[in-house]
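Changelog entry

Holo records now carry the ligand SMILES as an explicit input line rather than a separate metadata file. Below, a converted record for zinc ion, shown in the new format.
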Amino acid sequence: MQYEGVLTKMQTEAGSPIQYYLVFENSFLNVNQLLGKDIEINFMGFYCLNCSKKKKIYRQGFCYDCFYSSASAGDWIMRPELSTAHLGIADRDLEYEQKVQLQPHIVYLAASSDMKVGVTRKTQMPTRWIDQGASWATPLVEVPNRYLAGITEVAFKNHFSDKINWKKMLLNEIVPIDLLAKRNEVKDLLPDEVKPYFDTTIEKLYVLEYPVLEYPKKIGKSLNLTTTPIYNGKLMGIKGQYLIFEDGTVFNVRSYEGFAVQINV
Ligand SMILES: [Zn+2]
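Structure line, unchanged by the conversion:
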């Protein structure tokens, strides 16, 4: 079978295990069904997800010009504390920013390797945790906009990581942490503006199960489609947005958004 299309991050469906899909323009592929099979990935060319031009991808599936002009690639995406839509102040496009920023956001605790704190829109829960390869996650506090979530994350930065050790995540080396106990321990660190929302946030632990036949003993190369346009390997697992192959190679699908590929199974 041959599939062809432009990569975007894998779509997921909660379940035991989680289901992963590659969605192309005219077809889709349930990646779980490729487990244990040899697959070939061929890099065909670039396709900017914003302007649809065949320009080199810079970041997040966008060409350089789109990354620095599109409203959906503003600094407040990666740094929620820079959000200003709640003040009526535009970064690139106020209407778009109001739509995205002025909606319920979750600050969460998750364990992908060590415990980390992060921010997501409520509608992206549990998708966000799956994309990060978290084994467990719990909402810490639900707030009405992105700014409040951002300042909460900043308040926690001195105490907890906001990064993921992706190698440990892919090796499934997870520090055992009681996230619900931590949740109660850390509530005093919440900024004063955010404290009132803690008690109204539902306490729940999410456990995520990934489709992995066997975790690697060690992580080899991270596949780079620019320098290795053709790759062949046996798929052993899917975790986060990564494909894990038998030879230890891992492929971060999300890093290759906007890359047109052919996949042969
Ligand atoms: Zn573009």
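Spot-checked after migration. The chain has a mean pLDDT of 95. Residues 127 and 180 are 20 Å apart (CA to CA).
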